Amino acid sequence: MTLSPTPAYLELCRRNQRHYRLHHAIGILHWDSATMMPPRASGARADALAELESLLREWQTDPALATLLAQADAESLDPLQRANLRESRRVWLRATAVPPALATQRSLVAMRCEHAWREQRHRHDWPGFLENFKPLVELVRREAGCLADALDVGRYDALLDMHEPGLRDSEVSRLLGHVRNWLPGLIGQIRERQRSQPCLIPQGPFALAAQRDLSEAVMRALGFDFQAGRLDVSSHPFCGGTFEDIRLTTRYSEYDPLAGLTATIHETGHALYHMGLPESLREQPVGAPRWGAIHESQALMLEKQLGLSPAFIRWLAPLLRQHLGEQPAFATDNLIHLFQRVEPGFIRVDADEVTYPAHVILRYDIERALIEGEIEAEDIPVRWNAAMRELLGIDPGELYGQGCLQDMHWACGMFGYFPGYLLGAMYAAQWAARIRREQPDLEQQVEAGEFGVVIDWLRQHIHRHASRYDSNELVRIASGEALDPDYLRQHLMARYLDD
Amino acid sequence: MTLSPTPAYLELCRRNQRHYRLHHAIGILHWDSATMMPPRASGARADALAELESLLREWQTDPALATLLAQADAESLDPLQRANLRESRRVWLRATAVPPALATQRSLVAMRCEHAWREQRHRHDWPGFLENFKPLVELVRREAGCLADALDVGRYDALLDMHEPGLRDSEVSRLLGHVRNWLPGLIGQIRERQRSQPCLIPQGPFALAAQRDLSEAVMRALGFDFQAGRLDVSSHPFCGGTFEDIRLTTRYSEYDPLAGLTATIHETGHALYHMGLPESLREQPVGAPRWGAIHESQALMLEKQLGLSPAFIRWLAPLLRQHLGEQPAFATDNLIHLFQRVEPGFIRVDADEVTYPAHVILRYDIERALIEGEIEAEDIPVRWNAAMRELLGIDPGELYGQGCLQDMHWACGMFGYFPGYLLGAMYAAQWAARIRREQPDLEQQVEAGEFGVVIDWLRQHIHRHASRYDSNELVRIASGEALDPDYLRQHLMARYLDD
Ligand SMILES: [Zn+2]
Ligand SMILES: [Zn+2]
C-alpha cells in the first residue's frame, strides 16, 4: 500500500461525504414534513430534525477541520480539488464564524418571530410583529458582524456573501440602480399599450387531477426525470429533497389553473439544475449548485424567458386545452395576453416580470439600511409605503399583510436574499440572449416543443460546472462576458413593446 | 440549582433520547425508500442510511455507556426507571456483545445473500443460494455464539432472546410440541368437514381506488388514527415509520380483493400497538413495544381472532359490497366460507390460520438444528420436504421457490424469529378467550361494528405497559395466567368444528 500524496485532502473529502449524507436525510425529512407527515407527528419530527441539524453543526465546526483545511492547502492539488478545498473552507467559515450561543439564540428568536408572523400578517398586526422582530434584527446584526469580521467586509456584504459568494453591496447597488433608472418609465409605457388589450379570465373550477396531469406533462417535456424525482403538493411550492432525489412540490388552485402551472415550471427550473450536476462530484461542496441568483436564474429561465414567450405558449395552448377543456380564455392569443399581463400589485409573489423588479428594489433599500444600522425596524412601514407609491403608484396603507408583513424572509431573520431574485432575472436574460444568438431558429424549435436546445445549453454552460467557479467567473465562462443588466431591459422592451 | 439525585440515570435517558431521534429519521427514510423514492435515488439513499445506522451503532457502543449503566444501577430508582435501565442495558448488550468486525461482515454477507436470493427463488436455484448461504450460516453461528456468551445461554436461545427477551428454546420446544400433537388430526377433521362446503371465488377486476377506500374505512373502524399515521402501497406490506408517525403499507391485487384487506387488518394490529404506547415514555427503551410474539399477537388478534370471526364478517360484508359492488361471492355466508377456508399449501404467507402452525414448526425444527450445528445448510431441502409431507401431506419437490427458498428471513441471516409467529397466535387466542369471558355480548358488539371493547382491552392490558414487563410477566398481568397453548387449540376447535 502506498501512502496517498494528499492525505489531508482525502480526509476532508471523506468528512464532506459524511456531511452530505446527513444532508440527504435532513432534506428528505423536511420534504416529508411538508407533504406526507400526519399532523400529530410534528413535535417528534421537529425533535428529530433538530437532533440531526445539531449533529451536522457539530461535525462542521469540529476544530480538527481547521487543521485539515490548512494541511490540504499545502498539498499538491489539481484545479478541481483546489476549488473543492475553497468551497469546503467556505462552508467551514460560515459554520464557525458565528459563536454557537449566538447562532442558537438567533435561531430560536427567528423561529418564534416566524411562528407568530404566520398569524400576525393576516391580522396586519405590525406592532405585535415588531415585538419579536426588533430583538431578531439586533441578533442578525450581531451575527452579520461576526461574518463580516471573518470575511473582512461590511455587515450587509457578509449576508449577501452567504447566498452568493463574492457578491458585494457596491455591485448590487450598481445593478439595481440601473433598473431603477428605466423601470418606472417602462412600466408606464407597457401599461399604456396593454390598456386596450382584451383579456378573458379562465372560468373554473378545474379538477386538480387534470391540473396535475398537465403539470407532469409539461415537466416531462422540459426534461424532468421522474426516475430521479417526484412531484407532490404542499402549501408553498418548493424544490426539496436532495440533488439525486428531487422532491418538487406545487399547489393547485381550482379557479386559477395558470398559477399552479407557473409555479411548477419555476420549480422545474430549479430541479433541472440539480439533475444536471455532475455525478462524480455529488457528495463534495464543489459539486453543489450555486445558490442565490444563479439558482434563481435557472428557474426564471424556464418560468419567464421560456415560459412567457409566445412560441412556448403556442406549444402549450393545445396541451392545456386537452387537459383542462376548451373555453374562450384558452384561445392561444388570449393565453399570451393572460401570461404577459402587466399590472402593479401589492404582492411580490403574484407580480408579473415587469413590475417584479420594483418589489426587489424596495426590499433591498430597506434591508440594507436596516442591517447597516441606518434605520430601525420601526421605520419600515413608512419607507415601504413611500417606495410602493414611488415605484408602482400604489399604497397598501395599514394593510401590512399586503405590505411589509407579506414575506417570510425577514420574519425568519433572512436578509440579503432578495437581491438574488432580480439578479437571477438579469442572468436569465443574459443566458437567453446568448442562446438566441447561437440558435437563430430557437422560436421554431420551442413552438415545436423541442426544448433541448435551451435545456442542453443550461446543462452545458451552467449545470455541469456545479460550484467549480464563483458567479463572476461562471457568467463569463457561460456567456462570454460579465453580468450586464441591460440584457434585462432589452428583453422586456422586446417582449412587451416590440411588435 | 440542586444537583439531581440520579445524574447517571438522567444522562442515560438523554442519550436514549438522542438514539430514539436518530431512529425516527432512519424509520422514515426506510419507509420512504419502499413507498416514495424514485428508483435512481437508491444508491444515495443506501449510503445515507448506512451512515445513520453506523452512527447509531457508534452511539450505542460508546464505552462511556457501560460506566453510565453501572452508575445508574447504584442510584435510587423507582420501578419504572429500573425497568428502563434494564431495557437500556439490553440494547447496550446486544450492540456490544458482537465484535464490530464480525457484525459488519455478517451484515455484508447477508446483504449479498438476500440480494441474490431475490432472483434465485424464482429460478428454484438452491445450489446457487447455498454458495452465499453457507458462509452466512457460519457467521450467524459465530454471532450467536458471542451473544450466547454474553447472556450465558445456548446459541439458539441467544437468537430467540433477540426478539423476545427471556424466551428460551426449552419453552419454545414445549409450546410447539403441544401443537405438533394435535395439529395434523385437527387439519384432517376440518378438511373433511369443509369438503362439501360450497365456496364461490370473487370475480374481478376490482379497482384499486375502491380497495383502498375499503381498507381505509376498515382501518378507521378499528381505531387507526389518520392524524398520527398514513396508509400507502409497497410491494411487501409493513408497519413502518416511528411510534408517533406510523407508516402502514399494503398491496392490492386486482383479482384478489381479500388479500389486500387481510394484510391491511394485520398491519393495523401492529399499528394500534404503536399508537397505544404511552406518550410519556416515548423516547426511552422502556417505552418501546415488545417485539416478536407479543407484537405479532396484536396483529393476529385483529387479523385472525377478530377478522375471521363470523360476527366481524357480518359487519364487513355490506361495507365490502358497498365498495366493491354486489356479486354472489360477496354474500355474507360465502364470505365466511372464503375467509375460513382451510387448505394445505406450500406458501407460509398465504396459509390459513389452521395450517399456518405447521409452517412454523417445520422452520423451527430446521433452524434450531442448523444454528446448534446438528445439521448443515445442505441438509435443508430433504428435511423441508419430508416435514411438509408429514405435517401437511404435500411435497414441493425441487420447486425450492415454493419450498425452502420462499422466505426472506434465512436469506437475511435472521434466525429465531419464526417461532414468534406461532407464539403470537397462542397469545392472541389467550387474549381473545379473556375478552370473551369479560364481555358476554362481544359478538353482538362486533357485529354492530363496535370494536372498542377489543381495542380498549388491548390498550389497557398490553399497549400501555410498553416494555415495562418481560413477556412472561406481561401475559400474567394481562390475562391472569401464564401462556397456555391450549387456548389456540380450543379456538380452532370452536371456530372450525363447532356448529
Ligand atoms: Zn425560485
Ligand atoms: Zn405481523
Characteristic key phrases:
mainly alpha; binds zinc ion; protease (chains A, B); hydrolase (chains A, B); metal-binding (chains A, B); 21 helices; Neurolysin, domain 3; metalloprotease (chains A, B); 499 residues; homodimer; 2 domains; Metal-dependent carboxypeptidase (chains A, B)
Descriptive report:
The structure is a homodimer of 499-residue chains. With 499 residues, the first copy, chain A, is mainly alpha-helical. Chain A has 2 domains: 7-164; 171-496, Orthogonal Bundle (Neurolysin, domain 3), CATH 1.10.1370.30. The first copy, chain A, is 65% helix and 3% strand. Chain A contains 21 helices and 3 strands. Chain A has helices at 7-35, 42-60, 63-73, 79-96, 100-123, 126-151, 155-163, 169-194, 208-222, 257-275, 293-306, 310-324, 332-339, 356-371, 380-392, 408-411, 418-438, 442-447, 452-461, 471-479, 486-497, and strands spanning 229-233, 239-242, 245-250. A 3-stranded mixed sheet of chain A has the order 1-3-2. The radius of gyration of chain A is 23 Å and the shape is globular. The model of chain A has no long low-confidence stretch (mean pLDDT 95). Chains A and B meet through helix 1 and helix 2 of A and helix 1 and helix 2 of B. One zinc ion binds next to helix 10 and helix 11 of chain A. Residues 266, 270, 296, 299 of chain A line the site of one zinc ion (ZN). Chains A, B: Its EC number is 3.4.17.19. Chains A, B: It catalyses: Release of a C-terminal amino acid with broad specificity, except for -Pro. Chains A, B: InterPro entries: Peptidase_M32_Taq. Chains A, B: Keywords: Carboxypeptidase, Hydrolase, Metal-binding, Metalloprotease, Protease. Chains A, B: Broad specificity carboxypetidase that releases amino acids sequentially from the C-terminus, including neutral, aromatic, polar and basic residues.
